[in-house]
Design a protein that fits this description.
Elements lengths: L1 H37 L3 H20 L1
């Protein structure tokens, strides 16, 4: 019974990771498409988002 529970838990985690990966891929594709439509460089946008994220983290620590 314990072994079955462990297998179920491992399977559930694997499915969750696959689902999350699919969601992230879909979101990323949408972002790339939006950047193309707006004629902005995706990597510039990504760099700006990273800067804002790090700024948010620093502000949250104070």
């Amino acid at each position: 019974m314990v072994q079955f529970d462990l297998l179920n838990e491992a399977n559930n985690k694997q499915q969750s990771k696959a689902r999350l990966s699919d969601e992230i891929t879909s979101e990323l594709e949408q972002c790339i498409e939006l950047c193309a439509k707006l004629k902005i460089d995706f990597y510039d946008c990504l760099a700006h988002a990273r800067i804002e994220y790090e700024k948010h983290l620093r502000d949250a620590q104070h």
